Write the structure tokens for this entry.
Amino acid sequence: MKLTRSLLSLFLAFTLAAAPAAAQSGQAGASNAAAPRASASGSEATKLPVRRVVLYKNGVGFFEHLGRVRASQDVTIEFTSGQLNDVLKSLTTLDLGGGRITGVNYNSDAPLSRRLGALRLPLDQQTTLPQFLNAVRGAQLQVRGSAGLFTGRLLSVERRSRTDKNGQTTVVDELSLVTDSGEVRIVELGPDVTVRIVERDLSSEVGRYLDLVSSTRERDLRRMTISTAGTGERQLYVSYISEVPIWKTTYRLVLPSKPGAKPLLQGWAIVDNTVGEDWNDVELSLVAGAPQSFIQQLSQPYYSRRPVIPLPEAAMLEPQTHQATLVPQGDIQVASGMGVISGQVTDPSGAVIPGARVQIISQATGTVITQTTTNEIGQFFANVPPGNYRVRLESQGFKTQVRNAEVALGQITSFETGLDFGAVSETITVQSDAAMPRSSNSYFFNAPKAVAPPPPPARVMASEARERMEAAAQAKELGDLFEYKLKEKVSIAKNQSAMVPIVHTDIAAEKVSLWNESRGTARPLRALWLTNSSALTLDGGSFSVLEDETFAGEGLTDALKPGEKRLLSYAVDLSMSVDTKRETHYERVRRVRIFRGVMFHSSEERETRTYTIRNEDPAARTVVIEHPVRREWKLAADAPKPDETSTDYYRFRATVEPKKTATLTVTEVKPLENRYGLTNLDDNQIQLFLQQKSINARVEAELRKIVAQRAVVAGFDADLRAKQAHVQSIFQDQQRVRENMKALKGSSEEKQLLQRYTRQLDQQESQLDALRAEIADLEKKRDAAQAELTRMATDLVLEVEL
């Protein structure tokens, strides 16, 4: 037996008839957020475009959407499943035209079986027409077929087998309906039969079921619908964070061919759009920092057992107050290698002017180094490299004022400025989208359309073109972070990447050869000893070196703050070689110190490393030798001074003439110290010190006094041991006598012997009394001698250089 094609066609017709009824009901479940809600004007949900993107180094991005809505309109934003958790914990929505947000829905990430279980229809994902009809038994249906149109309540669905005259068996399904008049009508389902659900609630439930089943076709798509209510046309603002690929930085270091010219540093940022939506004319910012962020499975429905708690008979709560927020007033921090310009801006009456624009302009180049605004109490500050600057101050309704400022390394240059009322000396027009909310400590720039770098021009023109080229981003300190704000808007299609220039500046760099013994080779590395002389924080990344318009090597760099110095290696130097030899010897005792009964012998271990450097190049070369920093070792007084010291290495500079050999000798010392207790010394030890020349005559004389007193104490100890041995001998003899006395039986001879033993014991007791008195006297003398020995050792304070 088999199911006929007519039955399948009937099922499709039935479900298509049920779906419009569901749409007419106006009912929508929480899991049906993918379906657009009709607005008050009759339009369906529209997409809200991305307008601003900020990418961070920890793999998250901040996204802003801004668009127009009309009346009670719905808008949608599409995400991948991986983005949804971040969106749910960071979503912000604002109706900027006085309307309100009435709801935010999205298609659930719960298992389909659990979502189907929430419906009133007992249906699963794989449902046949008979199973569907059995699920709606008792429902009011309208049936149209060859017998006409009639309405009734579904009684049953039965499957019957029929055999025709040719002996072929077919299976048919029959509906049994009870009409309002009580008549039972039986209808055979076929292609010419249509069935419509009359009950509106049941039609809505069927619509929900179909939406749930259809959602399985787009398993990774999460469509969020934001419902609004209001009148007229308005701006709608939405922001959130989302997991994104980490943006990468790569640099080009162009070494100058002209004498005296500075190397050129060019930086590029590589950005990937994998969020599932095109970026069309967005403002793009790249932040060299990593705010704390985490993943939490908010999109996955979570169920838990809850305890049953009885209602309390009475509950009394006392009103309480809460402390106000404590706003810390942070001190001005001077960045490494920088100085600070700070000040306060007031009006003629002395009132502070918040939000005044402050530009720091280099007097040497006329370029804007940085810009900021005054805070709520009219104050500002900015970290800048040492130098001379013009500080330009302007605010709406006041005359622009320019102040000169000289900034020293590590110092704060501060002044107060009063702005006079009047028109600003320069008119500045700012074009921006309407009423987008932006925090006072954020800065918004247009970002460039990302394009691939142009093909290189002729070699004779390449250096001139690079000098004329400008970065497509403006850099700005952002608290503990650093931000590159692209000057023009960018467009990056989904699943596409772009490369934009973010740094274009002269840099201070010295070309050197870098050698480190731990590499295990005699060849040093070609390197640049680079100083970040710009006002930019340079993000970490890869770099390529171009010399004489030719690729010279590449390497990696960590982040560099303004004024920070760093060695960047990029190639093996085949013109140089370095060899090293090591010698170790121990110095004799150089200093003797006696304090609190202890004698300290101070000496040192010396180690000398000689670096032999050979230069085969026809030009003089500078070599930087990295000598390891070791615990307990320090550079000797006669050792050369390192140019700089890192955590693990001293860095020594050596210049080697063409076709010559040079040496660098580094001596280190390790202090050694031996300790001796004065009260434990004897003549043999003193004699050994004299042979080793670790003491002189003065120390010897003081030590011999202590040794002599120690001999006195030792003499008393010897006498005490002899007396105590005598006492022990008497005790043993008395024990023998007492044992013999126990064995006597009482005869006349034994009585005489007993008397003899008694006299002997009496004599021994007298001896013991005398010995005890002598021992007590010796102990007093010994203790006095020991106390004197201790005093002599403790009171002796001596320090002698040998």
Q: What stands out?
A: The longest strand covers residues 598-615.
